[in-house]
């Protein structure tokens, strides 16, 4: 048993874990997708901004070189004009965090930002050792010559870089041409290493910090939600195990108004119904056992007394009559139980017809004549009883009226009365049977039509009842389209009222 409980708890934990992991995975995948998309968009925007910045500054440098140098000066030897260009390259490169250098028409670097101050004077070179190793691809040079400017991603000395090239255009004078014609005398290149830019890193850090906080709250929310989903199921599992051993006292705690709450309410309603059914079953077993045991014991005792001579011959008829009454009581109990079973299963066959219920009431009342005279009961209402036709099964209504009269006679006090009233109410005929005697408590009025229920289990007046009569009466009346109820406005009266469809 302990191993079984442990296994069931593990299953519940696995259900919770699966729900939690599924929801957590959905949140993680969503955040990763959003983060990746955001980084791609920000990086693309950053690259566009960066290349535009490189393009504008390379144009500025190209215009400056065009104003200071002529085609014959496009080489790496020292000159003051080239030093000015190198210094401007250094300032611009520092501002935009890029590397800017000037090449001749063949793609060789002739001026770089490192050669400022007196260094180029002593070395007689405007190119540092690092830039001397730079090589520009022929395809990039060709694109610059054809379009005047070019933007591309390429490798420079093995490093991936974004490169913007701008042609340096200056007038070139030839012999016999004093005005000169514009021609490309070199190229300005601005490069920046590819990779994550500062803005992308800033956005990435901000997104990660925000995502961590959101995920923390999301995981907490997921944990609470999945726990709230699984807890009622765990409670229902516990309740089902207790129901299996006959304990119907456990109830699921219900909170909220969602589908789980509805399920919990339905489960508790089912538990109430099972508890009620189990109580009825136990009461049924106890009542039926008592109802069967008592007469069978009496029958066996009287018959044994007759057979062994204990009961004298002149007393045998008296005791045989008692045996006959007990056998009839057993027969009535069995018939009642069979009828109850048929009605609950829907197998009870009805044969409704048009007839006068007032005649039936008088006929049934005559069968109680001896009991009525013995208790000196006054019958009221017969003088005003008029014919009233109903559409119902005569046998079923006979049993209904018989049971109600039997209860009325049984519980009416000595020298009391039974009041009968039949009236028409629209499309219904109403029958009322009121008797004097002890009334019915208000808290018991709603229970007297329940199966196996007795108004007072300790009263000897109802000692022979099994608590099935009024239950069967209620089912029969409702099957015929009517309604039955009881009322007791005082402690000295009780009244049963039922209605039936009026015959057309």
Distance between the termini: 66 Å
Helix content: 55-70%
Going by helix content, strand content and strand pairing, the class is alpha+beta
What percent of residues are in strands? 15-25%
Low-confidence stretches: 1-12, 457-463
* Biggest beta-sheet profile: 5 strands, antiparallel
| Rg of Cα set | 54 Å
Write the H/E string, N to C: HHEEHHHEEEHHHEHHEEHEEHHEE
Helical segment tally? 13
Describe the structure.
By secondary structure, the chain is α+β, with helices and mostly antiparallel strands. The chain has helices spanning 2-68, 80-96, 119-123, 129-132, 138-147, 198-244, 259-307, 313-345, 357-366, 369-374, 394-411, 442-445, 469-479; strands at 99-103, 109-112, 149-156, 159-174, 177-193, 352-356, 378-380, 389-393, 417-425, 428-436, 483-487, 493-501. Strands 2-1-5-4-3 form a 5-stranded antiparallel sheet, sandwiched between helices. Strands 7-9-10-12-11 form a 5-stranded mixed sheet. It has a two-stranded antiparallel ribbon with strand order 6-8. A hairpin with a 5-residue loop joins strand 1 and strand 2 (109-112). The protein is rod-shaped, with a radius of gyration of 54 Å. The two termini are 66 Å apart. Residues 1-12 and 457-463 have low confidence and may be disordered.
Write a concise synopsis of the structure shown:
Helices cover 56% and strands 19% of the residues.
Keywords:
disordered N terminus; 504 residues; five-stranded mixed beta sheet; 56% helix; single chain; five-stranded antiparallel beta sheet; alpha+beta; 13 helices
Write the layout of secondary structure elements.
Blueprint: H1 2-68, H2 80-96, E1 99-103, E2 109-112, H3 119-123, H4 129-132, H5 138-147, E3 149-156, E4 159-174, E5 177-193, H6 198-244, H7 259-307, H8 313-345, E6 352-356, H9 357-366, H10 369-374, E7 378-380, E8 389-393, H11 394-411, E9 417-425, E10 428-436, H12 442-445, H13 469-479, E11 483-487, E12 493-501
Helix pairs in contact: 1-2, 1-6, 6-7, 7-8, 8-13, 9-11, 11-13
């Amino acid at each position: 048993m302990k191993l079984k409980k442990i296994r069931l708890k593990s299953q519940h934990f696995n259900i919770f874990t699966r729900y939690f992991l599924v929801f957590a995975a959905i949140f993680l995948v969503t955040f990763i997708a959003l983060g990746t998309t955001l980084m791609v968009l920000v990086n693309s925007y950053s690259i566009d901004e960066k290349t535009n910045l490189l393009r504008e500054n390379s144009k500025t440098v190209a215009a400056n070189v065009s104003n200071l140098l002529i085609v014959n000066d496009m080489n790496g030897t020292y000159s003051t004009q080239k030093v000015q260009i190198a210094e401007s390259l250094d300032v611009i490169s520092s501002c935009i965090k890029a590397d800017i250098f000037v090449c001749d028409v063949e793609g060789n670097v002739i001026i770089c930002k490192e050669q400022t101050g007196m260094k180029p004077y002593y070395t007689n070179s405007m190119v540092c050792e690092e830039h001397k190793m730079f090589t520009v691809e022929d395809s990039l040079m060709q694109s610059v010559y054809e379009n005047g400017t070019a933007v591309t991603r390429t490798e420079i000395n093995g490093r991936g870089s974004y490169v913007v090239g701008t042609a340096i255009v200056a007038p070139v004078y030839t012999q016999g041409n004093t005005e000169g014609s514009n021609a490309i005398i070199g190229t300005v290149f601005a490069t920046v290493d590819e990779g994550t830019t500062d803005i992308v890193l800033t956005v990435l850090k901000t997104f990660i910090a925000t995502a961590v906080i959101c995920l923390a709250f999301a995981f907490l929310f997921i944990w609470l939600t999945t726990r709230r989903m699984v807890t009622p199921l765990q409670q229902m599992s516990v309740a089902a195990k207790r129901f299996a051993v006959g304990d119907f006292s456990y109830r699921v705690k219900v909170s909220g108004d969602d589908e789980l709450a509805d399920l919990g309410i339905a489960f508790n309603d089912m538990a109430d119904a099972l508890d009620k059914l189990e109580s009825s079953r136990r009461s049924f077993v106890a009542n039926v056992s008592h109802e069967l045991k008592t007469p069978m014991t009496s029958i066996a005792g009287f018959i044994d007394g007759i057979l062994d001579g204990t009961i004298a011959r002149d007393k045998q008829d008296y005791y045989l009559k008692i045996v006959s009454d007990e056998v009839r009581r057993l027969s009535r109990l069995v018939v009642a139980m069979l009828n109850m079973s048929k009605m609950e299963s829907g197998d009870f066959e009805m044969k409704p017809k048009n007839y006068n219920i007032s005649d039936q009431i008088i006929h049934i009342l005559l069968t109680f004549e001896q009991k009525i005279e013995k208790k000196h009961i006054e019958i009221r209402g017969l003088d005003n009883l008029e014919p009233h036709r109903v559409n119902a099964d005569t046998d079923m209504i006979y049993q209904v009226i018989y049971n109600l009269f039997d209860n009325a006679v049984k519980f009416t006090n000595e020298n009391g009365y039974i009041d009968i009233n039949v009236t028409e109410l629209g499309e219904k005929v109403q029958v009322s049977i009121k008797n004097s005697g002890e009334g019915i408590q208000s808290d018991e009025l709603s229970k007297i039509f329940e199966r196996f229920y007795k108004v007072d289990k300790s009263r000897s007046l109802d000692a022979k009842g099994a608590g099935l009569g009024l239950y069967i009466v209620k089912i029969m009346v409702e099957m015929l389209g009517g309604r039955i109820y009881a009322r007791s406005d005082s402690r000295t009266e009780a009244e049963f009222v039922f209605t039936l469809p009026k015959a057309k």
